[in-house]
Amino acid sequence: MKFLVEIDIMPRKELLDPQGKAVTNGLHNIGFTSLDNVRVGKHINYEVEAESENAAKEQAENACKKLLANLVMESYHIHISAI
Amino acid sequence: MKFLVEIDIMPRKELLDPQGKAVTNGLHNIGFTSLDNVRVGKHINYEVEAESENAAKEQAENACKKLLANLVMESYHIHISAI
Fold first, then answer.
1. Phi and psi angles of residue A22, each rounded to the nearest 5 degrees, phi first
2. Residue B63 — very low, low, confident or very high, per pLDDT cuts 50/70/90?
3. Domain residues of chain B, as ranges?
4. Chain segment A42-68, per-residue pLDDT in tens
5. CA of A18 vs chain B CAs: smallest distance (Å)
6. pLDDT of residue A25
């Protein structure tokens, strides 16, 4: 079966996010004053041929641990859907 | 009401994504050969005080158009949840 894997990789809550802070200021400056706590991370998606949703998820976790995410500074969230 | 706004900003399908191509190759090289078409974009989230989910969504679309996304090269997807 073919799956679409979507991964969000975000800076950990405990850490400063300078890019997010810059975007917060930018949005405030152009009039979006009601929003706050902008955080900026990566969104990665790919297609994969796997036996089951669980197999695809396990593989995605391995890919995050080995290459995609820096677990010291980032956390990831995986979402899988059949295509 | 307070909402959590999550925005995915991805390079348009018609365009090359060199970063995604590099990640595809990297994953193939470390043994993840069953996956393909990796695309890398941004994931942005923030908190906002708004009257309704629709108001929050409209504001997020404006923020995408004015600052967050380059609509020539990128498309965005907005997800709103109450917090």
1. -65, -40
2. very high
3. 2-82
4. 999 999 999 999 999 999 999 999 999
5. 13
6. 97
Amino acid at position A64, single letter: C
CATH code for the part of the protein at B2-82: 3.30.1280.10
Chain B residues with CB under 8 Å of A63 CB are 27, 32, 35
DSSP A10-75: EE-TTS--HHHHHHHHHHHHTT-TTEEEEEEEEEEEEEEE-SSHHHHHHHHHHHIIIII--TTTEE
> B61 falls in which pLDDT band (50, 70, 90)?
very high
Note whether B41 contacts A38, CB cutoff 8 Å.
Answer: no
Contact A63 B26 (CB under 8 A): no
> In this structure, what token pair is assigned to residue B65?
């158009």
